[in-house]
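hey
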C-alpha cells in the first residue's frame, strides 16, 4: 500500500520548475543519494514538460511504495488532464527512461497514469508511519522557491556534473595512456611468444617426423621379426619332424633291438625333438597372430562341448597324483559367439600352464555368465606370481625366475592374450606368491 507524501498541480510552464524542485526535495527527504535526486528531478521536469504540452497538464503525486520483491521505492504518478493517445506514453528522449528505475503508463481506476519510480537505498532511514506523516507535513509547509532559484540550482548541478565529467575525462586520459603502454608491452610479449611458439612448432614438427620415421622402422622391424619367425618355424618343422620319425623307427620293436643305453639315448633324442617341435609350433602361431593372418571363424560355441574336450585331453597330463584337474560344467544356456578352435586353444594353454606349475592341490576351470559377458577362469594352487611380474609374464620369452626348471618357452601366455584380444575379450591375472594364480578370460556373449 503506497503512502502519499505530496500532491502538486501541473498547469503552466512555471509549474515545471516547481515539480522539479519538489521532486528533488522529496527524494532527499526519503533518503535518495544526491545523484539519484538529480536524476529523478530531471526525469520529472522532462515528463512534466511533455504532459503540459500534450495533455494540458497533470496532477502529480509523490508516494512511498514497495516493488515486486518488497524493496522501498519513491513513486511519482502524473495523471494527465486529457487522455493520452492510445492510452500509452513514450518519452520523446530515450535517455529519460534511463534516469529512473521504471517509467511507464499504467491504468489506475480506469485512468491512464504515467508512473516513474526510483529505488530507495537499503541503508536509508526506515520511515515509520509517524515519520511519513511528519515528512508530509514538512513538505506541505515548505515554501516553494522561484523559477530563478531553480535555474540557479540547475546551473549549480550542471557545473558539478561538468566538473565530474572533466575529472572523469582526465582519469580516462590517464587510463588511455596506461592502456597504450600496456598494449605496447602486451604486443611485445605477444610477438615474443609468437616467435617462441613458432620455434616450438618447428621442433614439434621435426620430432613428429622423427617419431613417424621411428614408428615406420618399428613396424618394419616387427614385420621382419614375424617373417623371420614364420620362415624359421617352417624350415625347422620338417627336419624336427624327421628326427622324431627316425627316433620312433629306431625304438620300434620291428627294428633291430637296441641296448638299454641306446634306447635311453633315442628316448632323449625323441623327447628333445618333441620339445623343439612344440617351440617351433608356438613360434609359428605367434608369428601368425602378430602378422594379423589369424581370422576368427565366428560361430555359436557350446561351452559344454569345449569343456568336455578339454577335460578328456588334459586329464592325461595330470601326472602327479597330488594335483587334481577340475573342469566344472558351465551353467545353461552355455553358448556364446566365438571361434571354437581359438577359444579351446586359449583355455588349453592356460590349463596346461596351471598343471605344469602346480605341485599339489588342484587346477580348476569354471565359467560364469554376467549379463552380456562370459567369464572363464582357470585357477590353480601353484607357486603364484609376484604382483610386479603380472604384466611381464605376457612378454614374449619371459619366464618367472625359478620356474625355468619346469620347462616352457615363455610364448604361451603372450599368444593366449593375443587370441583373446582377437576374440574381442580380455585376459587378466590375479595372483600372489605362494597363493596360486587365477587367469580370467572375459568374452562378450554375442561376439566382438
Amino acid at each position: 500500500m503506497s503512502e502519499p507524501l505530496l500532491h502538486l498541480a501541473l498547469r503552466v510552464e512555471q509549474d515545471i520548475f516547481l515539480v522539479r524542485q519538489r521532486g528533488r526535495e522529496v527524494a532527499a527527504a526519503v533518503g535518495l543519494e544526491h545523484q539519484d535526486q538529480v536524476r529523478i528531478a530531471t526525469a520529472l521536469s522532462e515528463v512534466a514538460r511533455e504532459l503540459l504540452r500534450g495533455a494540458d497538464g497533470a496532477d502529480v503525486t509523490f508516494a512511498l511504495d514497495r516493488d515486486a520483491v518488497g524493496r522501498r521505492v519513491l513513486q511519482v504518478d502524473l495523471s494527465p488532464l486529457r487522455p493520452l493517445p492510445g492510452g500509452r506514453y513514450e518519452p520523446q528522449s530515450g535517455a529519460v527512461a534511463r534516469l529512473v528505475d521504471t517509467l511507464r503508463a499504467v491504468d489506475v481506476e480506469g485512468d491512464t497514469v504515467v508512473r516513474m519510480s526510483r529505488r530507495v537505498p537499503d541503508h536509508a532511514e526506515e520511515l515509520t508511519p509517524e515519520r511519513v506523516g511528519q515528512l508530509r507535513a514538512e513538505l506541505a509547509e515548505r515554501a516553494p522557491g522561484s523559477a530563478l532559484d531553480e535555474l540557479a540550482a540547475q546551473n549549480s548541478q550542471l557545473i558539478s556534473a561538468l566538473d565530474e565529467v572533466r575529472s572523469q575525462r582526465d582519469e580516462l586520459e590517464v587510463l588511455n595512456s596506461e592502456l597504450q603502454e600496456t598494449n605496447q608491452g602486451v604486443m611485445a610479449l605477444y610477438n615474443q611468444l609468437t616467435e617462441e611458439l613458432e620455434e616450438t612448432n618447428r621442433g614439434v614438427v621435426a620430432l613428429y617426423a622423427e617419431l613417424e620415421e621411428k614408428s615406420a622402422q618399428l613396424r618394419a622391424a616387427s614385420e621382419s621379426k614375424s617373417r623371420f619367425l614364420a620362415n624359421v618355424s617352417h624350415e625347422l618343422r620338417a627336419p624336427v619332424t624327421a628326427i622324431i620319425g627316425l627316433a620312433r623307427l629306431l625304438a620300434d620293436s620291428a627294428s633291430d633291438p637296441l641296448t638299454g643305453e641306446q634306447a635311453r639315448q633315442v628316448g632323449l633324442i625323441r623327447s628333445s625333438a618333441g620339445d623343439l617341435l612344440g617351440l617351433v609350433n608356438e613360434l609359428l602361431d605367434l608369428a601368425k597372430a602378430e602378422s594379423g593372418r589369424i581370422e576368427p571363424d565366428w560361430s555359436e560355441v557350446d561351452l559344454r562341448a569345449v569343456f568336455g574336450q578339454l577335460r578328456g585331453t588334459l586329464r592325461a597330463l595330470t601326472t602327479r597324483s597330488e594335483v587334481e584337474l577340475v573342469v566344472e560344467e558351465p551353467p545353461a544356456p552355455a553358448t556364446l559367439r566365438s571361434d571354437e578352435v581359438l577359444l579351446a586353444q586359449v583355455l588349453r594353454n592356460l590349463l596346461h600352464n596351471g598343471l605344469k606349475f602346480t605341485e599339489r592341490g588342484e587346477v580348476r576351470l569354471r565359467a560364469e555368465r554376467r549379463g552380456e559377458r562370459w567369464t572363464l577362469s582357470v585357477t590353480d594352487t601353484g607357486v603364484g606370481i609376484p604382483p610386479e611380474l603380472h604384466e611381464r609374464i605376457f612378454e614374449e620369452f619371459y619366464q618367472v625366475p625359478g620356474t625355468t626348471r619346469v620347462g616352457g618357452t615363455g610364448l604361451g601366455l603372450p599368444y593366449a592374450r593375443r587370441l583373446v584380444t582377437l576374440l574381442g575379450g580380455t585376459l587378466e591375472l590375479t595372483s600372489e606368491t605362494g597363493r596360486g594364480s587365477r587367469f580370467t578370460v572375459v568374452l562378450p556373449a554375442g561376439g566382438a
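The radius of gyration is 49 Å. The first strand starts at residue 3 and ends at 10.
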